[in-house]
Write a structure and sequence with these properties.
By secondary structure, the chain is α/β, with parallel strands linked by helices. Helices cover about 30% and strands about 20% of the residues. Keywords: Methyltransferase, S-adenosyl-L-methionine, Transferase.
Length: about 270
Amino acid sequence: MTIINLQTLDTIQNYLSSDIIDIVLLLSLTLDKSHAQLISHNNYQLSSNEKNQLNQFIKHRQSGVPFAYLSGTKGFYHLDFKVTPDTLIPRPETELLIDIALGLFNQNQTYEVLDLGTGSGVIAITISDKNPNWNLTATDFSINALAVAKQNTKTNINFQLGSWFEATPNQTFDLIISNPPYIKQNDIHLNELRFEPQSALISGKDGLDDIQIIINNIPKFLNEKGYLLLEHGFNQQQKIIQLLKDNFFNIKKFKDYNQKNRAILAQIKH
Ligand code: GLN
């Protein structure tokens, strides 16, 4: 990367013609203008406040802070969500879970649905928004994440604080969904994810510790022929099928838009 002296940049055009990472997004964020507006006002000279704000954003972004933590928002499915460093940034892969869940039951009937480890709330909130007849419960062991999820919610969701099923000791569900942590300790990709909450990403030496806890404890929390829907790592499918085979049947496997194994749906035998 060429080293740019930010002090020498004054106009929108100066910034746009630099090769600063995410410069269009950062300019849009600072000036509250769309890309088209930036181009049509490209002679605009930034005020010193605007320049200071933009140059701060640029420095943070260059040091690796994800854009979503600078803007404080991320789009997911048909909605925009507030995100903070207490929550994972929603991934497009996770939209697959929404498609699967929405196709599972009749829209006009009532079902009990649980989102375990909801983070910013994307899974529970998106499903609740699409299907107001379903009763959504969402849990997280992080009180700060739960606070963000509550701010993101416009529908009526039952939020509970606690680790996995400790949060819902007396409830049972027709569908339990989770995007749990599933990256293995010391995975090389964790360096790129260093600004996100590590507890939402890492799960023991093979990345399966939390998935194992969920599968071991789930039987008594599922209603008759209820479903488990899990997001998982691209190389974990066979191990998860092994973990499921005693108590589950009707196991279905799904690939994400990159053709990587990414989700499993299974039905409890009882
Ligand atoms: N899919 C995420 C990633 O690899 C990980 C999310 C998770 O562990 N639940 O960046």
